[in-house]
């Protein structure tokens, strides 16, 4: 298509939808959950995301930042965000109250967790710290459609028990017979009943057949190298291992180039990549 | 669509002025007061401007040398407003918050006159970035669709010119709407597109050519192109430019990158003058209830370019950042968009405060990769 023909596509990719913070919940000492509802009803109904995708959230006057969506895609009325108080935008957001307005662009990301392909397979989730947020959307979806999947194994590591996110849900999942939850922390407190150490240590114990298993990984950047090494030792199939990568995404639409990894853009080609793809990407891990 | 006209040299000025009536003409001009040499809007400098340098006006046109900054700022401004917003909260009723967003894409018609073929290639690279893929950029595209490109071939090549090493040539009019070739008493005006034809149609200063003349003018253009190309000696003898991306892939982990890049001070000057560097940053400015969202040029050699809020930085060293810059131009964008994102204008070589030369860096990598292959 020529530039002249494209000119007719007038919708600005940089214009956010207006949305309202409907609820705020403290998840840990540094993370809060925000329930976000898009104001315009039509837009809200058209807003369909897939587990692993993200939105660009605007605090007007301060700027935009990318956040993955941890809630279930089946929840159409609003979506949740899990936000750590760490940057300009997230810092300002932590000071906001219910009823405050924000801007939303998205959902973005072509790469998402392949929840359709995963059906009739075992699902192994490896999450570290805030990495729980993006994979929670997938966990929610899988549990809502539990019969479509074989075993569900969740390995989740954190610095200490206080930093574990979604504690009430973890408890609930632990009580179920059809979910295997393994928690580990670096610094246990008194009465801690889970494992001690990094979540990498729990990978050798995964006992499901690799041919019928999908693995999903998300956590701090330092975690990936070690997790991949362990997964490779277990011979998990690289095309069935999916990792959600973190980069500084600004525009979200593949133009500003900040988040590129080699010839791929984290925002439009990712943020979820298969291990197979990542092996061919320079400086991905 | 292809048409060929001639324009007498003494009519060049009148010709440009006639174009400026219906559109906004940008042309390469020296600001003699501030010693700046860039593309300026003729409408903005008209009052103190002369087409010749032999006078005391502040601005004068210059068609032989290439401008210090590339012309990319005309289509992709250094600062650009993406949207306005108005945020008002009613203190009496917290539910009552008003936000108005206004997006204003640009509307002007413009003509860029006197582009070097490498600059036109630069614009064609920008076109791909902003118009290809899942999303298109409305601001760039709107401006670009309203812009006509008039190139002028290069008879003089400078020390830092290397277009023919990266697939271009001094008389390559690909992607130009109109190309000018200088001859003894006149300019030959090659019109390649309908958009170009529309602005010169019935222009009183242009003379039509016969079919026979057209044939000979075309072959003259070819000759000139070959003659000028010969003046540029390749610093990468034996390597085809299309092969560079694969060599870059293979050479990614070579130790030599460290030595080659240690001089870089991350100032970003090379990226600002570059006709193909398109990275940008998005920022909000707010004054009480009113605010704007802007985008502005950014550069990948900066430490904070990839710095995340968590403190993680995937390219924390200058070696990683400079290697990324070279790969962006000679590898990644070739895979994404099918072209090298270096057009050989040489501006980065000219402007670098620590004398880094991208030709030499690529040459060193090519050389080292050959050694490793053996």
Describe this structure in words.
The complex is a heterodimer of chains A (285) and B (374). With 285 residues, chain A is α/β, with parallel strands linked by helices. Chain A has helices at residues 3-6, 41-46, 88-94, 132-144, 167-175, 221-233, 266-269, 275-279; strands at 17-26, 31-38, 54-59, 63-68, 79-84, 101-108, 122-128, 152-158, 180-185, 195-196, 213-218, 241-244, 260-261, 264-265, 272-274. Chain A folds into two domains: 12-108, Beta Barrel (Elongation Factor Tu (Ef-tu), domain 3), CATH 2.40.30; 122-278, Rossmann fold. Chain A contains eight helices and 15 strands. In chain A, strands 10-9-8-7-11-12-15 form a seven-stranded mixed sheet, with helices on both faces. The longest helix of chain A has 13 residues, at 132-144. Chain A is globular, with a radius of gyration of 19 Å. The mean pLDDT of chain A is 92. Chain B has 374 residues and is α/β, with parallel strands linked by helices. Helices cover 34% and strands 22% of the residues of chain B. Chain B contains 13 helices and 14 strands. In chain B, strand 10 (178-182) and strand 11 (186-191) form a beta hairpin. In chain B, helix 8 packs across helix 11.
What is the secondary structure topology, with strand pairs?
The complex is a heterodimer of chains A (285) and B (374).
Chain A (H helix, E strand, L loop, with lengths): L2 H4 L10 E10 L4 E8 L2 H6 L7 E6 L3 E6 L10 E6 L3 H7 L6 E8 L13 E7 L3 H13 L7 E7 L8 H9 L4 E6 L9 E2 L16 E6 L2 H13 L7 E4 L15 E2 L2 E2 H4 L2 E3 H5 L6
Parallel strand pairs in A: 7-8, 7-11, 8-9, 9-10, 11-12
Antiparallel strand pairs in A: 1-2, 1-6, 2-5, 3-4, 3-6, 12-15, 13-14
Chain B lengths: L2 E6 L3 H11 L1 E8 L4 E6 H4 L3 E2 L8 E3 L10 H4 L3 E11 L7 E6 L7 E6 L1 H15 L6 H8 L1 E6 L25 E5 L3 E6 L2 H7 L5 E3 L2 H20 L13 H7 L5 H6 L7 H5 L6 E8 L2 E8 L20 H20 L9 H5 L6 H16 L1
Parallel strand pairs in B: 2-8, 4-5, 8-9, 9-10
Antiparallel strand pairs in B: 1-11, 1-12, 2-3, 2-5, 6-7, 6-14, 10-11, 13-14
Helix pairs in contact in B: 8-11
């Amino acid at each position: 298509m020529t530039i002249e023909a494209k000119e007719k596509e007038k919708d600005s990719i940089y214009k956010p939808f207006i949305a309202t913070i409907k609820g705020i919940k403290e998840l840990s000492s540094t993370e809060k959950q925000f329930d976000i509802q898009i104001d315009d009803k039509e837009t809200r109904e058209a807003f369909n995301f897939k587990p692993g995708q993200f939105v660009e959230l605007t605090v007007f006057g301060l700027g935009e930042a990318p956040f993955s969506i941890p809630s279930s895609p089946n929840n159409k009325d609003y979506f949740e965000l899990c936000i750590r108080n760490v940057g300009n935008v997230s810092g300002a957001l932590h000071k906001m109250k219910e009823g405050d307005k924000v801007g939303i662009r998205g959902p973005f990301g072509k790469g998402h967790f392949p929840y359709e392909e995963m059906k009739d397979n075992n699902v192994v989730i490896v999450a570290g710290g805030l990495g729980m947020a993006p994979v929670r959307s997938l966990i929610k979806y899988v549990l809502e459609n539990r019969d479509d999947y074989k075993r569900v194994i969740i390995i989740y590591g954190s610095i200490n028990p206080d930093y574990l996110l979604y504690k009430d849900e973890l408890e609930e999942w632990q009580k179920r017979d059809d979910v295997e939850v393994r928690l580990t922390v670096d610094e246990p407190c008194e009465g801690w009943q889970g494992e001690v150490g990094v979540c990498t240590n729990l990978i050798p114990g995964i006992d499901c057949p690799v041919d019928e298993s999908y693995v999903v990984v998300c956590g701090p950047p330092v975690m990936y190298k070690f997790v991949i090494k362990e997964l490779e030792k277990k011979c998990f199939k690289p095309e069935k291992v999916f990792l959600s990568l973190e980069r500084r995404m600004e525009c979200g639409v593949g133009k500003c180039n900040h988040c590129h990894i080699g010839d791929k853009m984290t925002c439009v080609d990712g943020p979820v990549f298969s291990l197979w793809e990542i092996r061919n990407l320079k400086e991905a891990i | 669509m292809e048409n060929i006209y001639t324009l007498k040299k003494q009519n060049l000025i009148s010709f440009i002025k006639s174009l400026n009536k219906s559109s906004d003409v940008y042309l390469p001009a020296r600001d003699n007061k501030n010693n700046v040499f860039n593309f300026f809007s003729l409408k903005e400098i008209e009052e103190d401007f002369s087409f010749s340098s032999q006078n005391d006006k502040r601005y004068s046109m210059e068609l032989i040398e290439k401008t210090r900054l590339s012309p990319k700022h005309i289509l992709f401004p250094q600062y650009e407003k993406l949207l306005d917003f108005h945020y008002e909260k009613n203190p009496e009723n917290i539910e009552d918050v008003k936000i108005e967003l206004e997006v204003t894409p640009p509307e002007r018609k413009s003509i860029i006159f006197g582009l070097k073929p490498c600059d036109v290639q630069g614009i064609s690279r920008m076109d791909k970035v902003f118009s290809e893929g899942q999303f298109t950029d409305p601001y760039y595209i709107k401006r670009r669709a309203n812009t006509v490109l008039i190139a002028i071939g290069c008879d003089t090549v400078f020390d830092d010119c290397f277009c023919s090493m990266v697939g271009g040539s001094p008389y390559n009019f690909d992607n130009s709407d109109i190309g000018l070739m200088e001859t003894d008493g006149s300019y030959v005006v090659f019109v390649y597109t309908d958009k170009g034809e529309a602005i010169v149609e019935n222009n009183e200063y242009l003379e039509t050519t016969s079919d026979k003349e057209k044939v000979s003018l075309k072959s003259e253009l070819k000759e000139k192109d070959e003659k000028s190309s010969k003046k540029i000696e390749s610093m990468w003898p034996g390597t085809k430019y299309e092969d560079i991306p694969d060599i870059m892939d293979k050479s990614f982990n070579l130790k030599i990158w460290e030595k080659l890049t240690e001089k870089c001070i991350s100032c970003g000057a090379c990226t600002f003058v570059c006709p193909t560097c398109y990275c940008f940053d998005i920022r909000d400015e707010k004054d009480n209830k009113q605010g704007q969202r802007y985008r502005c040029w950014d550069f990948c050699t900066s430490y904070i370019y990839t710095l995340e809020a968590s403190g993680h930085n995937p390219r924390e060293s200058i070696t990683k950042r400079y290697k990324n810059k070279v790969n962006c131009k000679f590898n990644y964008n070739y895979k994404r968009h099918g072209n090298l994102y270096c057009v050989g204008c040489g501006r980065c070589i000219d402007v670098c405060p620590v004398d880094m030369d991208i030709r030499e860096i690529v040459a060193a990598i090519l050389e080292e990769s050959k050694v490793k292959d053996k």
